[in-house]
Amino acid sequence: MSSADVADIRPGHEFDTGRLASYPAAHVDGLSASLTVRQFRGGQSNPTFLLESGDRRYVLRKKAPGQLLPSAHMVEREYRVMDALRDSGVPVIPTRLLCEDPSVIGTAFYVMDFAEGRIFRDPSLPGIAPAERREIYAAMGEVMARLHAVDWRAAGLDNFGKPTGYLVRQISLWTRQYEAAKTHAIPAMDELIRWLPASTPAGETTAIAHGDFRLENLMYHPTEPRVIGVLDWELATLGHPLADVAYNCMIWHLDPATPNLSGLAGRDLAVLGIPSEADYLAGYAVNAQLGQIENYSFFLSFAFFRFASIAQGVYARALAGNASAPNALQVGLLAAPLAELGWKTAHT
After folding, report:
1. What is the tally of helices (H) and strands (E) in the chain?
2. pLDDT in tens, 266-288
3. Taking the domain 130-345, which CATH number applies?
């Protein structure tokens, strides 16, 4: 997160900043009624804002404006899991306040500390030396394994989700979300909707699943290849850790030339200093103390299906005029190519 990534509040995202100023000023150290609010440029789901009061800076995350899909944009869940993980060893930005009263600014919101760090939006890491690229990827896999190792019961998250049936529920959820946001036919999505339930692996493994664990949702130290904050916990739940792993690894299959969806497919990884997908998976397996990763192609197909459903939701919000980011329309158009990758993976 960088204060250089903020701008004026975008049209459609305005709220009563005066009312906001009086609310957190009574609950958060250092905030006063004299408050400046600007919006971060990124984010396709929950709009994110920089709050400045004197020399104090905080970050506010709120639900998107307008009519929302069922169970989407759950900032309350983001706050809960981040707060629970504060002393877990998983790097999270400290939270300060959750407000579930929509009368304050129109939706639920929470406030967390502002942290200055690096966010890498291009997985090829331009401008970074090859040795540091290796360390950045190693840190990503290590933090993901650390998250999956957390004792979720001891962290007070035993009712954060159901400990069994995750894959069945997720396939059903993202099928419903896709159908609710559907604007046109995507044949590959129809194929995946039929194939995934029939191909779900047996057995249960339960961990805290982030749900959107990717390079862009990690904040690194300003000068060191070290993760200082895992961001965007909206989709977190109790689930299968390999769902996170496969989602995290989609970048090795995405074409770098695809607009708004930068990937590593076809790049010379050895020259870049970036591990191959197989080497990255092997590193995760060591950190997670796994003998091997089973049913990986299923989890990767599911990851593409789920991402396609998310993209379709972004597209529907863009058409409705309440998307959180200015490039939402272009991102939403990625639903079809993502679904096609998922259906192709199902046959490998």
Report:
1. 11, 10
2. 999 999 999 999 999 999 999 99
3. 3.90.1200.10
